[in-house]
Amino acid sequence: DDADVGAIGYFHSDNYMNFRADGAEVFRISDAGLHIGGTGDANALDDYEEGTWTPSSTNLPVNTVHKAIYRKIGDIVFLYCDITLDSSPSDSAQATSLAGFPFSCNDDYFQCNSRVAGLNQVIEANIAGTGAVFRDKADGVICTRSEFAGDRCQHIFIYTIA
Q1: Helix and strand tally (H, E) in the chain?
Q2: Quick one: which H or E segment has residue 146?
Q3: How far is the C-alpha of 151 from the C-alpha of 118, rounded, in Å?
Q4: What is the pTM of this model?
Q5: In the 8-state DSSP scheme, what is residue 58?
Q6: What is the DSSP string of 79-127?
Q7: According to the model, what pLDDT value does residue 13 have?
Q8: Are the C-beta atoms of residues 53 and 101 closer than 8 Å to each other?
Q9: C-alpha triplet 73, 45, 55: angle, nearest 5°
Q10: Whether the bond into 89 is cis, omega within 30 of 0
Q11: Which of the chain's ends, N or C, has fewer CB atoms near its CB within 10 Å?
């Protein structure tokens, strides 16, 4: 059946449903999935997921999770967290890390999308597996627990999965 309402309409058969705007296909739903902007493989949305995750750390425990969300579109993962780390231990003996990512990344990634209250330096995250280790971007030195202890931290991570 063809049904048109002004310049917007839809067409369906036993195998699929097309939605059109001004005569152009906007998206198609079929047994092959959702296609946006066309029916080719490049237009297929093959995976989408969103939710919350639980940031953790063995070196400096997470005291408060203000917000921790993710979006996964295809093989790309977008993570965000706003956390406050425990104030103890506050020594300089160990590196500061974050774990608990909902998906394991397929390679090592270096990103500068972190903010730590009280630190006046650019922090770089080395993302690997299901977590990240932080270092000072300027000199490459791994950040210590004392640099993050008791601070509120906000991180954005973008990576691909296998």
Answers
A1: 1, 14
A2: helix 145-148
A3: 7
A4: 0.78
A5: S
A6: EEEEEEE-S----SSSB-EEE--SS-BSS-EEEEEEEETT--S-EEEEE
A7: 62
A8: yes
A9: 15
A10: yes
A11: N
- Which two three-digit tokens encode residue 130? 């299901």
**Cα–Cα distance between 101 and 81 in angstroms, integer?**
10
Q: Which tokens is 124 given?
A: 């770089």
pLDDT of 120 reads 85
Structure tokens at 100: 């608990």
Q: What is the mean pLDDT of each run of 10 residues along the chain (162 residues)?
A: 50 66 72 74 85 93 96 95 90 86 94 89 93 92 90 95 84
Single out the residue of 95, 120, 108 nearest to residue 157, CA to CA.
108
Q: Which residues pair with 123 in a beta bridge?
A: 114, 136
Q: What is the CA radius of gyration of the chain?
A: 22
- What kind and span of H or E run contains 155? strand 152-160
